[in-house]
Specification:
This protein has one domain. 3% of the residues are buried. It is mostly helical and 107 residues long.
């Protein structure tokens, strides 16, 4: 009964935790100490786990944000390179047209 209560509570509080493994680790404490002390320890453990998960998610979010920034910079760099190629091509065309006009005028 106590084990199921523990597993159910832990699952609700922090779904990402392997409740059976945690129970097995804490079982000696559960058997040795009064239930109230055990539960206060459990809630402290869960609070720390949830805080750790929040920090990991926050860091992963920043990593994702950083990747998005890098991708955006790369996209803009590619666009600028493409525009530079287009401008270079246009300059060559204009130069060629100018030379043609000069040749026709001198002609």
């Amino acid at each position: 009964m106590e084990r199921q209560k523990f597993v159910d509570t832990l699952s609700i509080l922090s779904p990402s935790i392997d409740t059976s493994a945690v129970y097995n680790i804490l079982k000696p404490t559960l058997e040795a100490e009064p239930t109230s002390i055990f539960w206060s320890g459990l809630f402290e453990f869960v609070e720390r786990s949830v805080e750790k998960d929040r920090i990991v998610v926050e860091l992963e979010g920043k990593s994702v944000e950083s990747v998005k920034i890098v991708e955006e910079v790369e996209r803009q760099r590619r666009e600028l390179e493409e525009r530079a190629r287009e401008m270079e091509q246009r300059m060559r065309e204009m130069e060629s047209e100018s030379l043609q006009r000069v040749e026709e005028a001198v002609g």
